[in-house]
Design a protein that fits this description.
The complex is a heterodimer of chains A (178) and B (214). Helices cover 40% and strands 12% of the residues of chain A. Chain A has helices at 2-20, 52-59, 74-89, 107-127, 152-158, and strands spanning 62-64, 94-99, 135-139, 160-166. Residues 1-31 of chain A have low confidence and may be disordered. In chain B, the strands form three sheets. Chain B has a nine-stranded mixed beta sheet with strand order 3-6-5-4-13-8-9-10-12, covered by helices on one side. Chain B has a two-stranded antiparallel ribbon with strand order 1-2. Chain B has a two-stranded parallel sheet with strand order 7-11. In chain B, a hairpin with a 2-residue loop joins strand 1 (35-41) and strand 2 (44-49). In chain B, helix 1 (2-15) crosses helix 2 (22-32). Classes of the chains: A alpha+beta (178), B alpha+beta (214). At the A-B interface, helix 2, helix 3 and helix 5 of A face strand 3, strand 6 and helix 4 of B.
């Protein structure tokens, strides 16, 4: 019992110090990372090459599209080229290419648009040498927005494709049905 | 920040072709330690940052970020020289930035309505007044263009606020109040941010509570 209280007291003290905003909370040796701004995020402290964390920090998963369009812009192609380079040197990952929309039209039309966006990105990745047998697409339509509001600040974030690293095919992958 | 200033002057003098002066050569060598070759980019090249020479606190990293700002928002904390790109589950990608010597004069909400690759630089009139020797304009891609490979322009209600997020030729200035006006980032970082922020991205600039001029 004494030990448990001792530990509680210690973490409460850390929380108190960090709550005040003191520097050095990031490196509180041996203690779990406090839930405050600037504290390290589990998995991202020591990033190993070829990890999903490296892909997120050094490459980026999201590719954006213009309103109502599934055309890959020059700007989007820069991200796709970086992704292709990384995926070709990290062949253990499968790639689920997820399309999203926050555009005009019915939900069905947006689902179609989101699928066309995902198809366009997968085609570019394939053209750059990423094996088609590793990749599959799914259009989510208006589901899973980054953020939800009527302003362009939100909508521009949602008109996107997310290149998602996977260890296994899921039920949306045609490869899984073979 | 006397050292930074010396390095800067040394680099500027070297660029002007006064390499014969030994103290300039020394300062130039100190500046060179911050770089690691060149990196081709869209038909031009920038000097790659030697991140071994940079305090890890200014490296791009994922951190916890507790705020009400929605994912996809850029938050600039000029006081602490951090820029956050809000991600998911109370996390953010954090970048180190450099800030104007006299403090960032503007704070509040803005939007990235314009983005540019290797933009031309035209020094604003106030800067020309302080430094009359500055060129009237520097072409995009030129080695002495302080904006570097990318710029993101802050607008409000369709009006250009005159503030930008851009690159720097002086990696040692990241984490300090040294430039005039804008928010400067490592070239690698501003290129990274450019890819993550579509036009229309919301920006929140926190108030600069007190400028610690060099």
């Amino acid at each position: 019992m004494k030990n448990r209280f001792g530990r509680l007291g210690r973490s409460a003290l850390v929380a108190l110090i960090c709550g005040i905003g003191a520097a050095g909370c990031n490196s509180a040796g041996g203690l779990s990372s406090p839930n405050v701004t600037n504290a390290p995020v589990a998995g991202f402290e020591n990033i190993s090459p070829g990890s999903e964390e490296e892909f997120i920090i050094n490459v980026g998963r999201r590719i954006y599209f213009e309103q109502g369009s599934a055309v890959v812009t020059d700007e989007a192609r820069v991200t796709i080229e970086n992704q292709a380079r990384w995926l070709k040197s990290n062949k253990k990952w499968l790639v689920k290419v997820q399309g999203h929309a926050d555009d005009q039209g019915s939900e069905a039309a947006q689902k179609t648009l989101s699928t066309r966006r995902a198809d366009a990105v997968m085609a570019e990745l394939a053209k750059l040498g990423v094996g088609k047998n590793r990749m599959w697409v799914k259009g989510y339509g208006v589901e899973r927005p980054v953020t939800d509001c009527a302003e362009v600040t939100c909508k521009s974030q949602n008109r996107r494709v997310v290149v998602n690293l996977r260890e296994e095919f899921d039920e949306s992958a045609p490869q899984a049905k073979r | 920040m006397e050292l930074n200033r010396r390095i800067f002057l040394g680099a500027a003098a070297a660029a002007a072709g006064t390499l014969a002066m030994p103290h300039v050569a020394r300062a130039n060598a100190a500046a060179d330690a911050y770089f690691n070759g060149y990196h081709p980019d869209s038909g031009f090249e920038y000097r790659r940052t030697n991140f071994k020479r940079i305090d890890p606190v200014w490296h791009r990293q994922m951190v916890k970020y507790l705020s009400d700002e929605p994912p996809g928002t850029v938050v600039v904390d000029t006081n602490n020289h951090f820029l956050y790109w809000v991600w998911e589950n109370n996390t953010a990608l954090r970048y180190g930035v450099g800030v104007g010597r006299e403090g960032f004069q503007w704070f509040g909400r803005a939007r990235i309505d314009r983005k540019a690759l290797w933009p031309r630089w035209v020094p604003p009139p106030e800067m020309l007044q302080r430094q009359p020797d500055l060129p009237r304009k520097v072409d995009g891609g030129a080695a002495n263009n302080p904006l570097g490979p990318r710029a993101l322009y802050l607008y409000r209600d369709g009006r250009d606020l005159g503030y930008r997020l851009h690159s720097t030729l002086e990696p040692w200035s990241i984490g300090h109040d040294v430039s005039s006006g804008c928010i400067r980032m490592f070239p690698e970082d501003v290129i990274d941010l450019y890819q993550r922020c579509p036009k229309g991205t919301g920006v929140l600039v926190l108030e600069h509570l007190g400028a610690n001029a060099g």
